[in-house]
Amino acid sequence: MVAFPDWINMRTRSGMPGPRGRFLPGGSIEFNNNPISWMTRARRDFGDVVRIDRDRIFLSDPEAVHEILIETNKSYLIESAFAAGRKGDAILTESVPSFMDIRGDVRRGATKSAIQSHLERLAKSIAAGVRERANQEVDVLREVQHILSCVNVDYCMGSDPESASISGLVEQHFWASIELVNSGETHWPWEKRLLVDRVRGINGELKEQLRSVVRRRKKEGTADHPVDFLDYLIADSNPLNESRTVSSLRLMLLGSHAIPATALTWILLHLAEEPYLAEMARQELCAARSFGQHPGEGAPFSLAVIKEALRLHPPTWVIARRTLREVSLSGYRIPAGQQLLFSPYLIHRDERSWVAPERFDPQRWLRNMPHPRYSYLPFSMGSRGCPGVHMGMMQSLLFVSEILRNYTLRMPSLHEVDERFEALLLPGGLRGAWVSL
Ligand code: HEM
To answer: How many A from CA of 427 to the centre of ligand 1?
Structure first.
């Protein structure tokens, strides 16, 4: 039998606990100044559902978070830095079906079998990128990002003449988007949208270049067997139109480099911090002949190291959704138009769900279920969770394998690295090196 929410006995949003805050802005000034410390205190002092201000609620109950993620696209909406207010919501809601088609293309391009058939090529291009930057002190995040964007452009469209400038645009898009989100420019309708215009400009140029590659490829005709993601898109039995092909390529390129590069940078930092664990992973990776369809098949311990780094440092440290209609959640009636925020970073460090949550302990992943359900979400979940989970894990494993088998890491200690809670959880000012063995 379907259980209906008991609306009458539900508390309303106005009865929700939260810091008193100020007369009009409520808790928003304190929250905006330092969201992660606000969230940490709010969870400690008020529990799992806390009012931030008139329009925002912070949640840390994994069951409630799961419900929101599962119901996204129906009762909840993913917001965008480009579309604000009711008009923005309407545009975003209308675009969901076409976005889901494009997302489906990306998901199909990143399946286990698609990655498996390109494993050697992925490994080779990662090795080339890593080698090029070896033995020099570098901005680790920028360089890992550069390597991944080249690797992914190759995965998507081979070595077309435009590849270098396309991977440059993909990287620029990331840094411009971070600047835009940090600036809060879109919060205030009266502000000039200089950063929005900049990201739009980069986007326009990226699409233009992708369109020219797609047109040329279509003219040339595809290979008998698709050799890259673009071949696959063009050869699809139900031929896609040009704008969808361009959008799918763009989404794949944007999705597959910034978050994974951030994840990898934290993974490298954890490996450098724990030489004993790094040595165990190195021995396993040297002995592994292949990674099989499931990355854990050939290298379970190394995979556990990656999962553990993603637990302590999930690049997407905060996720937001907006209620599209009145909903019932954790015993509250929440009206339409509220922003709901939750933090994988905090859920991953919650001692109610994890044993010794602050300890870096890959072994926990080799035991049975190391946490209660829904308490681990570095890839989010539900209809809008990451469609590139498998590709992300494989990229990370190949990268780690290349580094540990051939180089030593020279990185600052994790305590010296600033955790920057920006649009992503970034390792601030990190410089380091991988030095040939
Ligand atoms: C370690 C690597 C990765 C991590 C930790 C990661 C994590 C995430 C997270 C947390 C989201 C947000 C979901 C949400 O708002 O609920 C996301 C979205 C997304 N990811 Fe990944 N990701 C990774 C790798 C990849 C790769 C390799 C691809 C490309 C195949 C990819 C493509 C995407 C796309 C297209 C979205 C947007 C999905 C949507 O809005 O429906 N990701 N990812």
So the answer is: 19
Q: Report CA-CA distances (Å) from 101 to 33, 97, 108, 123.
A: 38, 7, 11, 29
Q: Residues with Cβ within 6 A of ligand 1?
A: 78, 103, 106, 110, 251-252, 255-256, 259-260, 263, 310, 315-316, 319, 378-380, 384-388, 391-392, 395-396
Residue 254 has pLDDT above 60, yes or no: yes
d(CA 84, CA 76) in angstroms, rounded, equals 15
What is the biggest distance separating any 2 CA atoms in the chain, rounded to whole angstroms?
A: 68
Which comes out higher in pLDDT, residue 263 or 2? 263
More confident residue, 261 or 9: 261
**Confidence band, pLDDT 50/70/90 cuts, at residue 358:** very high
pLDDT at 192: 65
What's the pLDDT at 190? 58
State the angle between helix axes of 258-273 and 300-312 in degrees (0 to 180), rounded to the nearest 10: 110
Convert the pLDDT of each residue in 76-109 to its tens digit.
998 765 555 566 667 777 788 899 999 999 999 9
Mutate to test the pocket of ligand 1, among 102, 152, 384, 386 (most ligand atoms within 8 A of CB): 386
Q: Which of 114-123, 138-147, 234-243 has the lowest mean pLDDT?
A: 234-243
